[in-house]
């Protein structure tokens, strides 16, 4: 296709792919020294260059309930958009563009994907949409997602846009520790969620994909508030430090145990679960230090609890732990969770319990696809079933061997 302006459908003039690629190149060239406050104006200018209008960058809030607009010159202003039941939310959750015909053309919602994690959605309106437009818009969305992730290290404005409720200091610390909430690569996908998002203190998770091995840890520090957040910070830091030294799971447990004991004394502890998954073979290893047993999901149904020998929580000086092992089948999912999810009391005074959790996992698995959508839906429905209460932190982390 040439770089000349051509006549498109319904007599519409549109830029050819050559012109579109030039606009994307300009965005990339200018992004390196772009001040964060100019992200929205630059994206708006590129959208206008595509012949689009009314752009808005929508970012997921910490509770994953709404998509909040990132303010800036050239962008549409408005209220946060609910994720459930909206076209923007459908693009965000599904990871695919959504086109919505309007009186003035086509409103396009593009997921902003970064390494499988979804930052939010980009919305804009075109007079009409063809395959060249779709290809260019997908590339634009990929560039914008990378730009937002990169620039978020230099500014508070992106975090502020995502914060639609007051956040505690403990939660601020926890969110600063977290890796991206989801990752999708050809062999494995993961997704995690914390609640209550704006008040979480002692729960956290971490993961890393080192060559063919996925490393995962979920933790729950005793107590509440800032003390729990401080302990969780040390626990995650110790886990990362040991993991990056390429030592085994038993040695990682011992290192974390010493770090908590030396820093906080013998009366403090952190429950934890550390896993390793060989993404080439499906060989799963794990150490359980006081967490509920993970659930094995196969063909969208919980088939068993992954029972294993448990050891003392880190900080209590437990003996060398037994490493449990299992070979997964293709498509298997493993759900890890902390006790705050099942020990919450319902309105009648009964604990929510693991049986109810399993029942709802089976329901959600049948109605949602993708680990990220499943974790989000499961967290929200479980919180609703508990009467909206989360008196203790609760964490869900889902692994899929693909």
TrEMBL record:
InterPro entries: Bact_Sigma-Reg, PPM-type-like_dom_sf, PPM-type_phosphatase-like_dom
Keyword Transmembrane helix found: no
SUPFAM superfamilies in the cross-refs: PP2C-like
Keyword entries, A-Z: Hydrolase
Pfam family, one: SpoIIE
Keyword Repeat annotated: no
Record-annotated PPM-type phosphatase domain positions: 185-401
Residue ranges crossing the lipid bilayer per the database entry: none
Name by which UniProt lists this protein: Serine/threonine-protein phosphatase
